[in-house]
Design brief:
There is one protein chain. The protein is mainly alpha-helical. The protein has a single domain (2-106), classed as 3-Layer(aba) Sandwich (Rossmann fold). Helix content is 62%, strand content 8%. Strands 1-2-3 form a three-stranded parallel beta sheet, with helices on both faces. Helix 1 (8-17) crosses helix 4 and helix 3 packs across helix 4 (67-86). It is elongated and about 60 Å long. 17% of the residues are buried. This is UDP-glycosyltransferase 85A1. It comes from Noccaea caerulescens (Alpine penny-cress). Pfam families: UDPGT (PF00201). One of its GO terms (molecular function) is quercetin 7-O-glucosyltransferase activity. Keywords: Glycosyltransferase, Transferase.
Length: 109
């Protein structure tokens, strides 16, 4: 698992690595990213604002050993596979979209 403030870069790193998250958002887009990770994609557990040692321990134990954690690890692995597919040489959606950006915006075609 990964303890994160749920910034977009950290969220992408976890998604691409297939790693579930303990989300501890502070400000900006972090609350939104946390909501998606925890409630929509089910690959994260949110931890409260004023965190105590016992709460961290309970969340980490759930993530690593609990049934919810097992499901989160499985879903995180699904996200890793999707990210890998998106970056496949020539056919991945990331590659295709980058080529479109270069062609349409930068080259003006």
């Amino acid at each position: 698992g990964f303890l994160t403030h749920s910034g977009w870069n950290s969220t992408l790193e976890s998604l691409c690595g297939g790693v579930p998250m303990v989300c501890w958002p502070f400000f900006a887009e972090q609350q939104t990213n946390c909501k998606f990770c925890c409630d929509e994609w089910e690959i994260g557990i949110e931890i409260g604002g004023d965190v105590k040692r016992d709460e961290v321990e309970a969340v980490v134990r759930e993530l690593m050993d609990g049934e919810k954690g097992k499901k989160m690890r499985e879903k995180a692995e699904e996200w890793r596979r999707l990210a890998e597919k998106a970056t496949e040489h020539e056919l991945g959606s990331s590659v295709v979209n980058l080529e479109k950006l270069v062609t349409n915006v930068l080259l003006g075609e």
